[in-house]
Amino acid sequence: MRKPVAAVLSVAALVTAGCGAQVDTSSDAKATTSVTLTNCGKKVTYDKVPSRMVTNDVGITELMFALGLEDRMAGFVMPDDKGDLGGVPWKDGYDKVPWLSKDQVTKENVLDARADMVFAGWNYGFREDAGFTPDALRKLGVSSYVLTESCRNGRTDTSRGIMPSLEALYTDLTNLGRLFGVEDRAAELIAGFQKQVADVEAKAPKRADRPKVFLYDSGEDQPFTSGRYAAPDQIIGKAGGVNVMHDLEDSWTTVGWETVVERNPDVIVICDYGDVGAEQKKRFPLSYAPLRNVSAVKRQRIFTLDYVDLVESPRNPSAIARLGAYLRTR
């Protein structure tokens, strides 16, 4: 299925306009003025405007690029399995900002970069088992901001997500805009994204006619998928579908194949990243015997989106437009 060129170009035009944006140097005058933000339900005070931010993973990094904050970054950390970065609207950001590591973000690469702040998320860099947490960084004199999509919600020790994913995206853009003194840029991005999403919603079928969609990230014994609070839930919903795992009060989580069979999705969305390519991920459900009677498998209704489309990022609205166009085909 061909991607809708107009939708891709519209978001590209919106964000490209800010790729070369310079942070207003007047924000330096505010360096001694503290800013208090609500992050993961807690008030966090920042005593100065960060000047050497380290980001972890592609979606988080591109939030900074979309806001034109390359000059406030010391570098980013991400694996090199997130697709071609040369043709994205934020190519200039990737050209300007050092790629610190293709492994995990660590205290060592943060300190080596002389970072004064880390922007990451739980399971997007922050992890208790390695001792890489906001509390641990604070002891080193490094502040943190936690990706809202990844906020722990207290339902279990590991469950994540406290608000719908687009609200999380807009919350982070608003917070970062306040912290770095680029509120107008953040508001411009949010307004453009909201309009793009509304345009897709206007074309969606009536709720009773919406296709059921299953997000397949990875896994053969058990599939890794999206619950209510990961980005795919609203990407699917705003595109005109229904996430069959919407009742799961978590973001990214594992389910059983028997649940997928029982809920009988009409479409499967593949998350493309990692060592197992999209074509191999497509072949598995098509050849896995327990899924043979699932509608999406029988009709071979399988659509691929990139990893960065499906985690909180400024690419979410474009993903909604592309998936929406696919769901409207029969």
Can you characterise this structure?
With 330 residues, the chain is of the alpha/beta class. The protein has two domains: 5-197, 3-Layer(aba) Sandwich (Rossmann fold), CATH 3.40.50; 205-327, Nitrogenase molybdenum iron protein domain (Rossmann fold, 3-Layer(aba) Sandwich), CATH 3.40.50.1980. The chain has 13 helices and 14 strands. It has helices at 5-16, 58-66, 91-96, 107-112, 134-139, 165-180, 183-201, 231-239, 257-263, 278-287, 295-298, 307-310, 316-327; strands at 35-39, 42-46, 53-56, 73-77, 99-101, 117-122, 125-126, 143-146, 212-216, 224-226, 242-243, 252-254, 267-272, 302-306. α1 runs antiparallel to α7 (183-201), α6 packs antiparallel against α7 (183-201) and α7 (183-201) runs parallel beside α13. It is globular. Residues 1-31 have low confidence and may be disordered.
Average pLDDT rating: 90
* Integer count of domains: 2
Report the β-strand fraction as a percent range.
15-25%
Radius of gyration: 20 Å
Query: How widely separated are the two ends?
Result: 11 Å
Q: What is the molecular shape?
A: globular
Supply the number of helical segments. Answer: 13
From the 3D coordinates, which CATH architecture of the largest domain would you assign? 3-Layer(aba) Sandwich
Task: Work out the helicity level.
Answer: 25-40%
CATH topology of the largest domain: Rossmann fold
Q: Topology as H/E string?
A: HEEEHEHEHEEHEHHEEHEEHEHHEHH
Secondary-structure-derived class: alpha/beta
